[in-house]
Design brief:
Shape: elongated
Largest sheet: 3 strands, antiparallel
Order of helices and strands: EEEH
Number of helices: 1
Number of strands: 3
Strand content: 15-25%
Number of domains: 1
Radius of gyration: 14 Å
C-alpha cells in the first residue's frame, strides 16, 4: 500500500478524486448542498484523472501477491 495519497482537485476545489488504500477510486463532490456544475473542460480533466487512476489501480491489481 502506498504511504502517500495523491488527491486530484477540480472545479475550484469542489471535486476531488484519489486512490483509497490502493484498492478503489474515491470521488467526492461538495458544493454547499448544491450540485457541482462543470464546464466541458473540467469534465474532460476529471475524466482524464479518473482514467489515469483506473490504470494505476489496474497495475496494482496485476502485482503478484506476497
Amino acid at each position: 500500500m502506498s504511504n502517500r495519497i495523491s488527491v486530484h482537485k477540480f472545479a475550484d476545489d469542489e471535486v476531488y478524486c484519489w486512490l483509497e488504500q490502493d484498492s478503489c477510486i474515491t470521488l467526492k463532490a461538495v458544493s454547499d448542498r448544491d450540485a457541482v456544475e462543470l464546464s466541458a473542460e473540467e469534465a474532460r480533466e476529471i475524466a482524464s484523472a479518473l482514467l489515469a487512476l483506473a490504470k494505476q489501480l489496474d497495475a496494482l491489481d496485476m502485482r503478484p501477491a506476497h
